[in-house]
Amino acid sequence: MSLRTRVALAAAAAIALALVLLVIVVPQLFGRELRSSLDDTLQARAADVARLNASAPAELTQPVALEGRLTGGALYVQVLDRHGRLVVRSGALGGRVLPEADAVQRALKQRQPGFADASLGAEPVRLYAAPLGSLSGGPGAGGAVIVAGSTADVDHTVDRARTLIALCALAAAALAALLATLLVRGALRPLTRLSSGARAIERSGDASERLPTPATRDEVGQLAETLNAMLASLERAREAEHRFVGDASHELRTPLTALRGNVAYVTKHGSDPAVLADIEADAARLGVLLDDLLALAREDAAAPLHAEPVDLVQLANDAGADEVIVTHPGTVEGEQATLARALGNLVANARTHGRGRVTITVDGSTISVADEGPGPRDPERAFERFWREGESGSGLGLAIVKAIAERHGGSVTVEGSRFTLHLYQGLVRERP
User: Fold this and answer.
1) Same-domain check for residues 408 and 265
2) In the predicted model, what is the mean pLDDT of residues 155-176?
3) What is the DSSP string of 174-193?
4) What is the pTM of this model?
């Protein structure tokens, strides 16, 4: 099933479950309230009979003294003496006698009032029995009064309420399912447009295209912005890849052309020391360029670091500088070989394009290389790939330094002729 269908069904199921609970719980609460009201009526009527027995016991046996009404019918009242014999009963009972439930025996023998559910023939009744005082001296003195009311009306009302609630619940569930479907369809419509746009971009393979952005600023809108930002990043990466391939092809073509020409010359004219020297130089240049390209490709792949403690002081001493200055010794977590290559590239860059003494300074988790020259003429482009200060070099040395620094969680900066590696995240400790 589609996401739209699953969400709509889940919403409808949740609403249906809530309505089922409503159908079960509400009638029970309604029935409980009706029975509680009936119990209050029975208690009040029994209290009236008890007061009449105490104040005017002679009137207790009058035909209308025990009559009472419920909302749906007559109250059934009868009075028993202390021996449980019938003294008087209301006219609604006719020739019937209220059943002697446990509540009646407790009222007579234990002198405790109580409720009970019983049957008067085929009619279900709710019964309340209460003891009568013995001070009046009347026929009911020391006996009990029993008041009962039919629960048929209560049961009928609860059944009708349950049926009505069930019908309303079914209608509400159907309406809720319809509304849930419509709301889910409206909410997921932007996702459908995003999916269609993504399929179109997948078919065209054009990373310059963008997904449609919803007008709302909800989660779907944020998702569209994130995906468009990802597409923009992919477009930039593809453009950088194209530039890199073009630049690499150009850089490789020059030594290859010279090498091919020199080989053709040797083939035609025989060996010549100068030509052989050129061939050796071209081959060496190709080797350096290919080595730099492979190193840069490895760094671009962002492989996980095989980190180990690297002593920056030892690294500086092995880099071949004219002088090493240690301000604060430090050890970082990183790859010994790649960090050594980055530092070696900085030293080689200072030897090739700088002048004077080359100095390495270690300060905690930073290590810098400086010479006595003015530095690159265009510092902002110094770390671009294939950008050269002069004619020598592959133009990849500083780009490799930047890639290594970033893979170690740091950065590289230039100020004048000073190039500094900042290895922020790799710092383990500073030695005293």
Assistant:
1) no
2) 82
3) HHHHHHHHHHHHHHHHHHHH
4) 0.47
